[in-house]
Design a protein that fits this description.
The structure holds 2 protein chains of 2 kinds. Chain A is mostly helical. Chain A is about 65% helix and about 0% strand. In chain A, helix 1 runs antiparallel to helix 3 (about 50-80). In chain A, about 35% of the residues are buried. By secondary structure, chain B is mainly alpha-helical. Classes of the chains: A mainly alpha, B mainly alpha. At the A-B interface, helix 3 and helix 7 of A face helix 1 of B.
Amino acid sequence: MWIYEKKLQYPIRIYQCDIRMAKYLLTQYGGPDGELSAAMRYLNQRYAIPTNEAKGLLTDIGTEELAHVEMICTMIYQLTKDATPQQMEEAGLGSNYAIRNNALFPSDANGVPWTAAYFQAQGDPVTDLHEDMAAEQKARAVYEHLINLTDDPGMKDALQYLREREIVHFQRFGEALRIVQEYQESKKIF
Amino acid sequence: MSERIALLKQIQAVEFAALELNLYLDTHRDDQRAIMEYNQYASQLSMLKQQFEMQYGPLLNFGFSPGHYSWNWLDSPWPWEEEF
């Protein structure tokens, strides 16, 4: 069960109308290492993970990632809501406008639609937790690239917040991995 | 900054502290001090949310917040429309 909280996790304030950034931000919505992929990956992996620590962590980080999806969508929405067709075209979003006006759609920055293949689930707890740690590092790197692409202080602030969340999640998944490995070793009977 | 935004930011800050401790506790379940801190933030958070909801309407759906006439869950701004 989930309930919705009618607020953002972190305040977003965009100062400049840098529509170009909306195209790049899309990758953190519907790209392979974006927030939607992360949320779905963790919430789906819960069912096959053996320890309560990892079940709790995948549930809680998966839920936090949903809040990050909302932050990214809020940034894209605020950047594009008043954009004219011409401004969309100049920002490289002409094809987005042609298909769906100013609607949001989960794709990467090149318009490749989000796919369930981004989930990643091997059913091996060590493999899956390594996958999650790698995913957090990849998302951190993408946030650093995005920060380099904008001068807007408000945008930078929100992206820096999201970047730091990736670092904390990486740390926690590493701890969960250690607990899983201890659990697997303790199970061995010689 | 409006009083509403100031209170909302305070809720975001306290909830963030609780969330961080929650994730930490998921891999450190025996840390009694962290559990105490978590509970302190949790009670602070529930007071702040109650204060916010009394003045500005529900934060949660599905029976977790009281609603008022005319169904004020629907009131703007929605999170993506918020101007901080």
